[in-house]
Amino acid sequence: MALRLTGEGPCPTCHGTGAKAGTVPRMCPSCQGTGQSNRNLGSFGISEPCKECRGRGLVVDDPCPECSGSGRAMSSRTIQARIPAGVADGQRIKLPGKGAPGERGGPAGDLYVRVHVKPHPVFGRSGANLTVTVPVTFAELTLGAEVKVPSHRGAPVTVRIPPGTPNGRTFMVRGKGVRRKDGTAGNMLVTVDVMVPQNLNSKARSAIEELREATAGQDPREELLERAKEA
What we know:
Number of strands: 14
Largest sheet: 4 strands, mixed
Number of helices: 3
Strand order of the largest sheet: 9-10-14-13
Order of helices and strands: EEEEEEEEEEHEEEEHH
CATH architecture of the largest domain: Sandwich
Shape: elongated
Helix content: 10-25%
CATH topology of the largest domain: HSP40/DNAj peptide-binding domain
Distance between the termini: 59 Å
């Protein structure tokens, strides 16, 4: 993907020297061009950036009017960044040599890109696994069924629901998840969710009423109530 960056780069007027056109910087007489000054503290010494040249090793007597002698100016550039497969939200990608240019013509630094993954309207993610919630009917869970489930960037897959499947059960479809760095793929986790019909015709209502009468002796909350008494 292409990234548009705005940041510091070599001044186009002085080409990064910091000196006015027709002049050149001279070597710092204080640090002899090293950019470092040494201080003797008795038994040991320390090095620190030269105060006269501010660590550049060069002194500009006649500064460039465009960059005021800094040798840098704001510029825009476009770079190509390869986003690896399976990248996670918030992951940081290092692009060597794509950062800000170094001092005195030194090599450029590195650029770190933090990735934010846009949420998908259908699929969620858990590591290398994709998650999806699929609406099903009460009859499909009770009697069993084969339902079509969407897969990411592929044809729908068929998931077999055994008779008597409880609501909220999760099925695993192997190899339909996120592709990892090693080329393997995670799985797709399919969770079934009963869809309660909002409008019933007379035939459907009659059938459900018959089911309620046929299962009237079964109280699904009986065990729950008993366990609550024991607590």
